[in-house]
Amino acid sequence: MTGRNSGVLENALGWFADGIALLRADGSLVYANETLRAFAERGDGIRIFARSIEFAPPDSQKRLDAALDALARLGGPFCDIYTTDFPVPRKDGTPAYIVSLRPLVGVGSHIAEDAVIILLVRDPLSVITATRRILQELYGLTKAEAHLAQSLCTGTTIVAYARERKLSINTVYTHLKRLREKTGCKSLGELVRKLSELNSPLLTNNHPYQLVD
Q1: Are 153 and 192 in contact (CB under 8 A)?
Q2: How far apart are alpha carbons 1 and 109 in whole angstroms?
Q3: Of 44, 25, 46, 45, nearest to 33 (Cα)?
Q4: Class of domain 3-122 as given by CATH
């Protein structure tokens, strides 16, 4: 990467809650953001060496190789783009990392040097924590209100939530009333739609990741 563009790109990718790596066509590592390096330091399924990223479970490593092969044949008759998303299980059995590979578009401007692939790693546990923090800061919610908001976005009903949290229905409805007041939503459906916008998913299978100079 050139000095100026490299710094701009690294600063931008450093803001992501997801782990991000830029790869060459052969899978060698060009760049890894701090989030991905933090994931690797946990030693629970992801490893980073000088010029490579590896996944401890053998099946996940095979799926990485298959994803790289699929991207190499992108647009061809034998390309299966769905192989570019796969889970990486952890040793302790907690929710797996979700890995997604996408081709980079617009790399001729030297932003990413010879990187042609972006690899994203999502940690469901980190996303849960980050979303709750965003809800609290954005709308001034308490921890209890943020927890309810997040549960509602996953489809949990009021009754199921009360049972899970060992709360009375009246207590949950009190939290819900405050949620609606703080977010300015008039209905539960409007509240769920508004809060769901904070959960940004990985890129869809039909869209490459584009860098703009």
Answers
A1: yes
A2: 10
A3: 46
A4: alpha beta
Structure token digits, residue 174: 């009190």
Ranges of H-type helices in 27-168: 34-41, 58-72, 124-139, 143-153, 158-165
DSSP state of 157: -
What SS3 class is residue 120?
A: strand
Residue 204 carries which DSSP code? P
Residue 171: partners with Cβ closer than 8 Å, 6 or more residues away: 162
H-assigned helices in the chain = 3-13, 34-41, 58-72, 124-139, 143-153, 158-165, 169-183, 188-196
Per-residue pLDDT of the chain (213 residues; tens, 9 = 90+): 444 455 566 667 766 778 999 999 899 999 999 889 999 999 899 999 878 999 988 899 999 998 998 888 765 444 555 578 999 998 888 889 999 999 886 544 444 567 889 999 998 877 777 777 778 888 999 989 988 988 887 788 899 999 988 999 999 999 999 999 999 988 888 888 887 776 544 333 334 444 433
- What are the sequence ranges of the domains in the chain? 3-122, 127-196
Architecture of domain 127-196: Orthogonal Bundle (1.10)
Bridge partners (DSSP) listed for residue 105: 210
